[in-house]
Amino acid sequence: IQPQQKDAFLEMLTHNPNVSDVSSQPMVRGRIAKINGVDVEKTRIEADAKWAVESDRGFTYSALPPANSPVAEGTWWPADYTGAPLGSLDRKLARGMGVHIGDRITVNVLSKEIEVTIASLRDINYISFQINFALILSPGALDGIPATWIATARVAGDKNEAVLIRDIARSTPNVSTVRVKDSIDQITEMVSHIAFALRLCALVTLVSGVLVLASALAATLDARVYDMVVLKVLGARKADIIKMFLSEWLLLASVTALIACVLGCGGAWLILKRLDWVQFEVLPGAIFTTVALALAFVTMTGFVIHTRIFNTRASSVLRNE
User: Fold this and answer.
1) Which terminus of the chain is more exposed, N or C, with fewer CB under 10 A?
2) DSSP character string of 35-93
3) Each residue's pLDDT tens digit, 137-156
4) What is the pLDDT of residues 193-212, one digit of tens each?
């Protein structure tokens, strides 16, 4: 959106009853050229942060901190600040670039180099599909550089959205309209396929683990026959023997499930900590359901495997000893 079009354009959006959450920001295009006076090509930057220095980036300026990316470290400049250029950087990006509060970043905008001192670091949620800038400059830092404006808005209903896009094309044909919903639908479909694959892998892993436990129980049948005979000779009833075996199977399955929960949650936490933009959350319901089903399956499997043993007569075994 051109500067001379901004006011009329935003007024059109705000007066539309089907439009809400209107947000706008000025933007200039440029590159991050230096970090603490050293060219970015000669600076060690982590792989997940190289996207910020390998191509042009959008920069903006603001007197107030954005509501959708709170300051995590440092302090925001005063609303009436007029001093040397300051900047607020994405905290994850700063970590990948090895930048801290007080360090300097030089941006090149239209061949003009602007050295910015990092005053704060922010936590940015890029998947919110709101306006987010990795680097925000203080007011006055981009004076004399022509800027365009970008805006986002939420429209109620596909029909109203189509009407709004048509109206924008008629009134401001130079403004490009992007339907974020299409991107969200594609991402949702992709994530649903990934989630299904993960659930399938988890199910196969769970079934494999339970079968291993069942195999371990089956491998001790001969020893179980001898133990049962000794218990019967010592006066144990069939019900007592079954209770003893059930207790052993439940203990085996419980210890295995506990170890699996600790290792699974620990591994998930490490993976999500590396991703950083996905929050780790323990789901007690899912854990309890999985453990309960595993306990029930192992117990039933052990009982079925040992049914023949429970009905074995002690005399038939002792005769062969």
Assistant:
1) C
2) ETTEEGGGS---GGGGGGTSS-EEEEE-SS--TTS-EEEE-PPPTT--SS-EEEEEHHH
3) 999 888 888 889 999 888 88
4) 988 998 898 888 877 877 77
